[in-house]
Design brief:
This protein is an alpha/beta fold. Helix content is 44%, strand content 14%. Strands 1-2-3-5-4-6-7-8-9 form a 9-stranded mixed beta sheet, sandwiched between helices. Helix 13 links the parallel strand 8 and strand 9. The chain is globular, with a radius of gyration of 20 Å.
Length: 388
């Protein structure tokens, strides 16, 4: 699609405002608890939840994972630890989080790992414009609670898993990456959480591979069918809230994001209250044209508003979810509205818990890290006890 210079200037100006509103409303440096050592306005219940879980879980973990309790994750042939001193490794120093690389065929995925290898397995999927770095607070909390946590940089974000061509980034391929990463880890079943795009892929994975999941925790993005209904509703506001996607899908969006020393991209992180040092965890990846272009290919390769299928009376191909699910939505998210969030319960046939974070915007994993950690541990604690 060719855009005139004048129209592109209008799009650029409008997109800057829209993206800031979409991803960062009601957020400031004084309310963010994104840094690992920062203060939070939310009650710190995560430490208590973590401690309770660890005490209750110690004997169960030994029973459930006796076969590999002495095997370190990096003893698996396809996984090796990264020892190079990078900006990210320096930022994570002292947290117990380790950088690993997972080799799968021709691809290699960078990942963050925390906790004992014998712990309850949980995978965390990032969104855009984030990387696995967005999960740093959750990795620490879950690891302290005895979980074995992996947060991969997904297709396009990992330099060793960055195929060319928009068609390489369909949701089907992204879902298969999750399965192959789990296979490489020897995880027959596991817990899965995702934020933003990661939530969309988590929903899709749960629909296709329900037997592989113990629990599902999507954050921000509703069930794909609920989202498609909201997006197609002429009386709703989701279409307007999602209008930025058209800009993301343009081939010119990559260069626009990175123009003027990546000022547009940086403005998103700044609006979330991240310092220059903190945003570097994202910029060292997405500040590169090839990585950002691959990340934007996720938008270009997928259709969020397919037509209604008269035979099934559905718009998406994602079935109702059988896995015990906790869906989390925040009231100040200007990209994802209440309609899709509240419709989601219709498309979960298994156990369902719906958490609403009042006064919190889209950046839940960082802005409301302690609140998120607490509800995640509470939900997982309950489900692990029931399974055992």
């Amino acid at each position: 699609m060719k855009i005139s210079e004048a129209n592109w200037a209008k799009i650029h100006s409008a997109s800057l405002l829209a993206i800031i509103l979409v991803l960062s409303s009601s957020c400031s440096a004084t309310t963010s608890n994104a840094p690992l050592n920062s203060k939070s306005n939310y009650s710190d219940t995560s430490s208590d939840a973590s401690g309770d879980f660890s005490q209750k879980e110690s004997s169960k973990l030994e029973e459930n994972h006796d076969k590999d309790k002495d095997m370190d994750l990096t003893e698996i042939e396809s996984i090796h630890e990264v020892n190079d001193q990078s900006t990210l490794s320096l930022q994570l120093e002292g947290t117990g989080i380790r950088e690993v690389v997972i080799e799968i065929g021709d691809f290699s995925f960078d990942a963050l790992f925390g906790g004992p290898s014998s712990g309850e397995p949980i995978m965390l999927l990032h969104g855009f414009p984030n990387t696995n770095y967005q999960w740093r607070e959750q990795i620490v909390a879950l690891a302290e609670a005895g979980f074995s946590v992996i947060a991969p940089n997904q297709r396009g974000y990992s330099s060793g898993a960055r195929p060319t061509g928009i068609e390489s980034y369909t949701s089907e391929k992204l879902v298969e990456d999750v399965r192959q990463i789990a296979d490489a880890l020897h995880w027959e079943s596991f817990h899965l959480a995702g934020h933003d795009w990661g939530a969309f892929i988590a929903w899709e994975f749960a629909g296709k591979y329900p037997d592989r999941l113990r629990t599902l925790i999507p954050i921000s993005v509703p069930h794909p069918e609920a989202f498609a209904i909201a997006l197609a509703d002429p009386n709703g506001i989701q279409a307007e809230m999602s209008s930025y996607v058209e800009f993301f899908q343009q081939t010119e969006s990559t260069s626009t994001f990175l123009a003027d020393n990546a000022s547009l991209l940086k403005s998103i992180y700044e609006s979330a209250g991240l310092s220059a040092e903190e945003m570097e965890g994202y910029l060292q990846i997405l500040g590169k044209p090839e990585a950002l272009d691959a990340a934007l290919n996720w938008y270009r390769a997928n259709n969020f508003s397919p037509p209604l299928d008269q035979a099934t009376n559905r718009r998406s191909r994602t079935p109702d979810i059988e896995t015990p699910t906790m869906y989390i939505w925040s009231t100040e998210d200007t990209a994802l509205g209440r309609q899709g969030a509240e419709l989601t319960s219709r498309f979960v046939s298994g156990e369902y818990r719906y958490e609403v974070f009042e006064g919190v915007n889209h950046w839940i994993t960082e802005i409301a890290a302690k609140q998120l950690n607490a509800v995640m541990l509470d939900f997982l604690n309950e489900k692990v006890e029931r399974v055992d």
